[in-house]
TrEMBL record:
Destroys radicals which are normally produced within the cells and which are toxic to biological systems. InterPro entries: Ccp1-like, Haem_peroxidase, Haem_peroxidase_sf, Peroxidase_I, Peroxidases_AS, Peroxidases_heam-ligand_BS. One of its GO terms (cellular component) is mitochondrial matrix. Residues 93-134, 243-265 are annotated as: Disordered. It comes from the Eukaryota. This is Peroxidase. Its EC number is 1.11.1.-. The keyword Iron applies. One of its GO terms (biological process) is response to reactive oxygen species. It comes from Parasitella parasitica. Residues 202-402 form the Plant heme peroxidase family profile domain. Residues 97-134 have a biased composition (Basic and acidic residues).
Length: 410
């Protein structure tokens, strides 16, 4: 009976009643016990002699002992089977638990409905440059190009010049000595940098790209978007082809640079040279990049100056160099207390005070004259210098594809 209780107890603890059929087993054991008791207690009947009776009793007792021994061994065997099954069940349960804890494979099936994804290029100070998602950069280029002439009431009817200025100002904060600044972080999206005095008015370009480009390509980093906007402006407004590659990763607001890293138009040539030397440019590259002023105009409420640098501010050419080297420039006072140079024959065209000092600098003047005479040389030098500018401080891996974009409107 102790074996039977053990069997029932184990079966209850391990939920294996269905495996060992305890009801049938109990019935069989009870029958065996009844038989054993019958043989042990019922006295023999008949007229046999006492010797025969003694032998009969001895035989019955022996048979009862043998049967009891048999039943004990049988119960022990059953107990062993139950214990074995318990171990097997425990092992199976452990294996099932381990299988449940294994990471589940990703579901690669296509969802029934497309949902808007959040940008994956979150602030990151690492040197990773691999794209989070395959982006069709030619299509991004085309989308930006479609925006250039979308508002005829803005300035001279084109967003191109302000996009070029955004690309230049988001890159020109680079410091070669400590590696800070540059286009890699896309940090002008933060107020701490956007509110620098030299960046007044660039919210026009940033808001335009945010609304029509970033919303469509959330995986596109701000640094890539700002610099690509400049490439679009140059090419679509008649300038040279600019080689461009992705790889800029957005960084946090703590990476914003201090104010004062961009040129101040009221200063002299040595100031602008210091700014460009800090980034790693030479004199020829400095003058070539200054040729970007062939596009756009100054605004009194932004930079403190007023007017375009030449009569076709939405067409990229070497006309800036022709104007500055060949026209007569006179001073004009401005209502805000500043002053600027204007063309004596056409006062609507202007030059910043710093630009005339650059023209007069003996190291820089030869390049102004060279670019005024040769458009092809200017285009080649500008393309190389601008590519260098927008890549300053970007930790490229070397695996990035370099793009030469097909023009959309030319």
């Amino acid at each position: 009976m102790s074996s039977l209780r053990s069997l029932a107890c184990l079966a209850t603890r391990n939920n294996v009643r269905h495996s060992i059929r305890p009801t049938a087993l109990t019935a069989n054991v009870r029958a065996s016990i009844t038989m054993r008791r019958t043989f042990a207690t019922v006295p023999p009947t008949g007229n046999h002699s006492s010797g025969s009776n003694h032998l009969l009793w001895i035989g019955c007792i022996s048979l009862g002992v043998a049967y009891t021994y048999f039943q004990k061994k049988r119960a022990e065997k059953i107990d062993a089977l139950v214990h074995k099954e318990q171990l097997e069940n425990t092992a199976a349960a452990v294996a099932t638990k381990e299988q449940e804890n294994q990471p589940k494979p990703k579901d690669t099936s296509t969802p029934e409905k497309n949902t808007k994804k959040e940008p994956t290029n979150k602030p990151d100070n690492s040197k990773k440059t691999a794209s989070e998602k395959e982006i069709n950069y030619q299509q991004v280029y085309n989308d930006i190009a479609e925006l250039l002439d979308s508002n005829e009431d803005y300035d001279d009817g084109s967003y191109g010049p302000v996009l070029l200025r955004l690309a230049w100002h988001s890159s020109g904060t680079y410091n070669a000595k400590d590696g800070s600044g540059g286009s890699n972080g896309g940090t002008m999206r933060f107020k701490a940098e956007a509110q620098h005095s030299a960046n007044n008015g660039l919210e026009v370009a940033r808001d335009l790209l945010e609304k029509y480009v970033k919303s469509k390509y959330p995986e596109l980093s701000y640094g890539d978007m700002y610099t690509l906007g400049g490439v679009v402006a140059i090419q679509e407004l008649g300038g040279p082809e600019i080689k461009w590659r992705p790889g800029r990763r957005d960084q946090g607001e703590n990476k914003c640079t201090p104010d004062g890293r961009l040129p101040d138009g009221s200063r002299k040539a040595d100031h602008v040279c210091d700014v460009f030397y800090r980034m790693g440019f030479n004199d020829r590259e400095i003058v070539a990049l200054t040729g970007g002023h062939s596009l756009g105009r100054c605004h009194l409420d932004r930079s403190g100056y007023e007017g375009p640098w030449q009569e076709a501010p939405t067409f990229f050419s070497n006309e800036y160099f022709k104007a500055i080297t060949s026209r007569e420039w006179v001073k004009r006072d401005l209502p805000n207390g500043l002053w600027q140079w204007v063309d004596k024959a056409n006062p609507e065209v202007m030059m910043l005070p710093i630009e005339i000092t650059m023209l007069e600098d003996e190291k820089l003047k030869p390049y102004f004259e060279l670019y005024a005479k040769d458009t092809a040389v200017f285009f080649e030098d500008f393309a190389n210098a601008f590519k260098k500018l927008i890549e300053l401080g970007v930790p490229f891996t070397g695996d990035e594809k370099e793009y030469v974009f097909e023009r959309l409107n030319m």
